[in-house]
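Quick illustration, no need to memorize.
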Amino acid sequence: MVVVGGTADLAPTTTVKFFAAGTAGCVADLVTFPLDTAKVRLQIQGESRLTLEGKAIYRGVFGTIFTMVKTEGPRSLYSGLVAGLHRQMSFSSVRIGLYDNIKQVYSRGSETAGIGARLLAGCTTGAMAVAFAQPTDVVKVRFQAQVRRPESGSVRRYNGTFDAYKTIARDEGVKGLWKGCLPNIARNAIVNCSELVTYDIIKELILKYNLMTDNMPCHFTAAFAAGFCTTIVASPVDVIKTRFMNSVPGQYSGAINCALTMLIKEGPTAFYKGFVPSFLRLGSWNIVMFVSYEQIKRAVMRYQQSWESPL
């Protein structure tokens, strides 16, 4: 992102950015995971096992959270958290930690990267992160989607996170761990561009016109705007990704078939199912992640400088 401010922000290395981005992603997931789980449940609602006599089980983000706590217990809100943390340590580290480096490549080392270079960098790091971390996303979604009510007739699919990795690879082949990879690449290219580029540009403008200093209020404002923009443009492909990754073998022939099935059976509004929890989750996630990222990055740089400075 923009590097302006104190000495601690002068020249963070790629390693520092990797560590800060992965750690900040984990912090953000710990805070917002129940919202993400509610979003997943709302997105897959319409499939047979999440309806009761033709009526929706979940209504709204807080209604979904209340229903899950009442019928499945509070722990259900954090089902898949371990895989979620695996995902953030690998996914966020790549897509956020490498963003500045790739942006410099596309801008040919220029200090002022244009919008084209920023968009290309966002698409590139988003696609790279998905290709690397897709198995963690598949496992996370399946745990979040699993209904744990005896009366629903549901059977526990996996005994744990690592069992899920092994079971999917055994039953569906290694390619099962990369199920939904293409729609996820499309989603994260969009998400990364909306999220990182919006944050980058807004933060840069705030600092350029001296509206705020390079501190938490600035990071909060830029992160909130990034979350709002991202939710609007990424919601349809996010719903398709969730439905397809959670589907049993043979339910859909591909991501496009999944999208067409949703359109025919549930109408165009199906693509914005879970929009409110998506916005609440992305908005809050962006705020926690970017504020944490900036602070962790600065803390690591201060520690590094104090370690290298002579006594």
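The two ends are 32 Å apart (CA to CA).
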